[in-house]
Structure formats: structure tokens, C-alpha cells
Give the backbone structure.
Amino acid sequence: NAGVTQTPKFQVLKTGQSMTLQCAQDMNHNSMYWYRQDPGMGLRLIYYSASEGTTDKGEVPNGYNVSRLNKREFSLRLESAAPSQTSVYFCASSEGRFEQFFGPGTRLTVL
Amino acid sequence: QKEVEQNSGPLSVPEGAIASLNCTYSDRVSQSFFWYRQYSGKSPELIMSIYSNGDKEDGRFTAQLNKASQYVSLLIRDSQPSDSATYLCAVNESGGSYIPTFGRGTSLIVHP
């Protein structure tokens, strides 16, 4: 039972490059989330998916797109990376009103 | 705009003492409340969840919820250096979406 997995763990991009962060969960949760965490800013919600087939914007969606591929997988895409997107990205999943389970995170640097 | 407020700290306590972490929230109809612990460079992990007014105890940890005053607290008894971490308070929206709002976290330092 792996919980929530994320790939890659680390990534360095040049400004303007694109990449996709992958997330998968094996807990049969309906809801999945993407957050970014910057020093002093806490966790900020980028996008979420309340159930398979639906996605919605969070607090900071600009510059990102998401895909809920199936119930297990939720990917985050940066189409044209900018230095302001340098951050640690966490994927999480949950069911109903209960707690979230987080993946190990992806540390992204955009030069 | 729903808000969850925490003192950023750092809160410094000696080993063996009680650490008290506090959180206030703005959405009066919030239903679910969580405390997560996050070590430096790691992801958040759940410490306690609480859904109704009163106290909930789990080992050295006690969560306290007061919906009338809109605050939730976490007490850590017999604090250990291994408890040194950032503690995040999270509050779920009511209704169908249950999207959580996180506080910015309180840094706790337990010194020997």
C-alpha cells in the first residue's frame, strides 16, 4: 500500500520549458489536490479534483493545468515554466470530510 | 475569504514540558479540523483530527475544539526533541466539496 506517490522528486527547468508532475494514489479516494509550498506562505491550493472527471481552480491556478486521468491519477502541467514557479509541489488525496494524505513532494527549480 | 490563523512562532519549550499550539478560523460552519506535523523537507502527516466540540486525546497529543469561539488547539505533553517541526492547522469547508484551508503553520522547537 504505497499511499500517494509523486514523480519526479527533483527537477530543474529553464525558463520557458514545460513539464508534467505525476501523482497517483492507491486508497480509492475520490478527491485529489495539487499544492505548492513556499517559505512563509504555507500550503496554497493550485487545482483540485473532487471526483473523477472534474477539476477546479484553487487559490493560485495561473500558469498551471491539470488532468484527472482516472480515479488514481492526477497530473499537473507547467506549459511554460517561470522562475516564480520555483517551489515544492505536493499532491494529496482524501475522501469526503476526512483527512488528506500527502505525497512526498517534488522540488522544482526554474532557472 | 475563509481564513485560518496560526502564530508562526517559533514556539520554544524545554524537553518534558507541555507545548500548546493554537489556531483560529473564520468560517463559522466548518465541520472538520485537522493538525498536521511537517518536518523540514518532508510532507505533512496527520497528527489529529477532530469533528465535535471538546477534547480528543491520542497518546501525548490532545486536540481541543471550541466551535462557539472558533478555535482549535493542540497540546503536546512530555514534549520531546523529535516533536520539533512545523504544525499545520487545517479546516474543511462545510458542504459537498470539503476543500481544506490551511494555516501557515507554527514552528515548534523542543530543546533538551
The longest strand of chain B covers residues 85-92.
